[in-house]
Write a structure and sequence with these properties.
With 392 residues, the chain is α+β, with helices and mostly antiparallel strands. The chain folds into two domains: 95 residues, NE0471 N-terminal domain-like (2-Layer Sandwich), CATH 3.30.2020.30; 259 residues, Clavaminate synthase-like (Double-stranded beta-helix, 4-Layer Sandwich). It contains nine helices and 22 strands. A hairpin with a 5-residue loop joins strand 6 and strand 7.
């Protein structure tokens, strides 16, 4: 929703001001909010502030407010300070729910048969770079071609997204078959669709799955849009959705001894399977059936919770919600790990070695890069409300 920047009336009282805009929208701005956001206090976006909230007079009132000769909103306060605001800035930052929802996320859902957005490995900073990040933000996943198969190629693609996250698996994690698999991904078994790292307080944000070698006997990648499945589930079973979005359960990963590519760990995080934001929009998924710990929830709702989780899991595994594709060497999936669940079909080593390389970038890194690119490329949406993910 967009509003014209054209105030038609301006009213004020001790508690703040109210502006009626030419399209009928009405914005209210509290006295303390106005004083706090006066530009004389420094640059809030750059965190170069000379004024502190704790210095504000909690009993501050507005003495006068009007449009000056330049068309700006001029506000006089009881402490003698006068602030001047650009109407466009006020409208863009209006705290009214209608305006906030006007900056809601723009996303598109996928399911079986939905074509993936595909790109050749772009150069940094150009339109193709912006298109790639926009696709991952909107669809939750994109397919990138022409990625060199060495570690430098993985790093080159990752650098377009943000800083690589270093974890107990290191910066880059090579997923290949091991004779004594210490991680299920190192086996030839099928992997049900899941999100990675649910046992971390802050799970991986954006992930890259880079194909180096491929087996001819299976090992196809699976992708499921967790946001789409959660929306279906909310429509069909609102009570079950309420349980999965409000009741936290434990996710656990324990490894008593270090292994070839992984340190010893004992990670535990409590979180909901589905996260919603303050406007009740789905903003993150945690779902990994092999990582659930023993549930410690109210026995009175235990049965209902299990029934909701079983149904949600069945929908996650439903082929109608699943994209299946074979990654070829030089291709990489870039996906939102807190939205797009990933898995694979079983394969046999008789069909050759399967080698994919995984790395992750924190969510705030990806969102920061996306916003900056939109600013630099002069594209709209730098202030779009992005999905924060499922954080414990």
């Amino acid at each position: 929703m967009e509003f014209e920047v054209a105030p038609t009336t301006l009213e004020f009282g001790e508690t703040g001001i109210a502006i009626r805009w030419s399209n009928g929208h009405r914005s209210r701005f509290h006295t303390l909010w106005l004083r706090d956001n006066c530009t004389s206090g420094g640059d809030k976006r750059g965190a170069h502030r000379t004024a502190l909230i704790s210095d504000l007079d909690p009993n501050l009132v507005v003495y006068d407010a009007h449009l000056n000769d330049d068309g700006d909103v001029e506000v006089s306060f009881s402490d003698g300070h006068v602030s001047t605001f650009d109407p466009g800035w006020l409208l863009a930052n209006c705290p009214e729910p209608e305006t906030r929802l006007g900056r809601s996320r723009r996303i598109a859902h996928f399911r079986a048969g939905t074509p993936l957005r595909e790109f050749s490995l772009p150069s940094a900073g150009g339109d193709e770079h912006g298109d790639l990040l926009d696709a991952v933000k909107e669809w939750g996943v994109a397919l990138v071609h022409d990625v060199p198969g060495d570690e430098a190629g993985t790093e080159q693609l990752a650098a377009l997204i943000g800083k690589v996250r270093d974890s107990d698996f290191g910066r880059l994690f090579d997923i290949v078959v091991e004779p004594d698999a210490w991680e299920s991904s190192q086996s030839t078994e099928a992997q049900d669709p899941h999100t990675d790292d649910p046992y971390r307080y802050s799970p991986s944000g954006t992930s890259i799955l880079h194909c180096v070698e491929v087996s001819t006997t299976g090992g196809d990648s699976l992708l499921v849009d967790g946001f789409a499945v959660a929306e279906q589930f909310r429509d069909d079973d609102p009570d079950g959705f309420e349980l999965l979005s409000t009741v936290s359960v434990p996710f656990v990963r324990h490894r008593a001894e270090s292994v070839d590519q992984g340190e010893d760990v004992h990670l535990v995080a409590d979180a909901t399977v589905i996260a919603v934001d303050r406007d009740d929009e789905i903003c993150g998924i945690r779902f990994h059936q092999r990582a659930f710990g023993p549930f410690d929830i109210n026995p009175a709702i235990m049965g209902d919770y299990y029934r909701a989780l079983i149904e949600f899991g069945r929908r996650i595994n439903d082929p109608v919600n699943t994209i299946q594709l074979r990654l070829e060497p030089g291709q990489a999936l870039v996906y939102d790990n807190q939205r797009a669940l990933h898995g694979r079909t079983a394969f046999s080593i008789a069909g050759g070695r399967r080698h994919v390389r995984l790395c992750t970038i924190d969510r705030d890194q990806f969102h920061s890069r996306l916003r900056r690119l939109r600013e630099e490329l002069e594209r709209p949406g730098a202030d779009e409300r992005l999905a924060v993910g499922n954080l414990s």
